[in-house]
Design goal:
- There is one protein chain.
- By secondary structure, this protein is of the alpha/beta class.
- The chain folds into two domains: about 110 residues, Alpha/beta knot; about 70 residues.
- The protein has six helices and four strands.
- It has a four-stranded parallel sheet.
- Helix 1 links the parallel strand 2 and strand 3.
- The longest helix is centred in the last third of the chain and has 44 residues.
Length: about 180
C-alpha cells in the first residue's frame, strides 16, 4: 500500500488514528468520485476507515475530512475493502501492487473475524507497522523482515487464541442446548 495509507478493519477510536491524519470515512451517503478524482486523494497522507456491519460511528463520520461513497449500494465491509484496494491500485498504476492486494484480500477473507478485537491489539499492530515501515525506510531489509515475521507471528498467536475461545464457546453452547432439551423432557 502507498506509504501513509492504512485500512482499518475494526472499531475505530480517534486515539488509534495517526495525529493530524486526513481521515476519509467510507459511507454510502458520502461523495461520489471518479477513479481519476480518487487518485488525487493519494497525493496526501490519509487513513481510510471502513465501517463494520452497522456502519461507522457518527463521531468518526463527523470528524472525517471526507465522506466517500464507493457505491450507492450498501456493501459488506469486506467487499468495500476490495473496491477501495482496487482504486488504490488503479491510482498507483502498479500491477505488482494489485497482485499483493489480491493475495492479501484472499487471505483476509479466509480468516474471518479480525485479531483487532483483542484488547490493545490496534495500538500494538500500529506500532508494529510503524516499526516495519521505519526499517524499510532505512533500507534495513533484515530488520524489516524480522519485524514483519514477529508481527505475523503475533497475529497468528492471537488468531489461535480466538479460535480456541470460539471452540470452547461452541462446546459450551452445545452442552447448554443438550441440557435444555433434557430438562424439557
Amino acid at each position: 500500500m502507498p506509504k501513509g495509507y492504512e485500512v482499518e478493519r475494526s472499531a475505530v477510536k480517534r486515539l488509534a488514528l495517526p495525529k493530524n491524519a486526513h481521515v476519509i470515512a467510507l459511507d454510502e451517503r458520502g461523495k461520489d468520485l471518479t477513479t481519476k478524482q480518487f487518485a488525487g486523494l493519494l497525493q496526501r497522507e490519509a487513513v481510510f476507515v471502513i465501517g463494520g456491519p452497522d456502519g461507522l460511528d457518527e463521531k468518526i463520520k463527523n470528524e472525517a475530512a471526507l465522506l466517500l461513497r464507493l457505491s450507492s449500494l450498501t456493501l459488506p465491509h469486506a467487499l468495500a475493502q476490495v473496491v477501495l484496494l482496487e482504486q488504490i491500485y488503479r491510482a498507483a498504476h502498479n500491477r505488482f501492487l494489485l497482485k499483493s492486494l489480491q493475495d492479501l484480500h484472499d487471505s483476509v477473507v479466509l480468516l474471518g473475524r479480525t485479531t483487532f478485537a483483542a484488547p490493545g491489539r490496534i495500538a500494538e499492530a500500529l506500532g508494529e507497522h510503524q516499526a516495519i515501515v521505519a526499517a524499510i525506510a532505512r533500507r534495513d531489509e533484515t530488520e524489516a523482515e524480522e519485524l514483519a515475521r514477529r508481527h505475523v507471528r503475533r497475529g497468528y498467536e492471537l488468531r489461535l487464541s480466538a479460535m480456541a475461545e470460539a471452540a470452547r464457546a461452541g462446546s459450551q453452547h452445545r452442552i447448554d442446548s443438550r441440557k435444555e432439551l433434557s430438562d424439557k423432557k
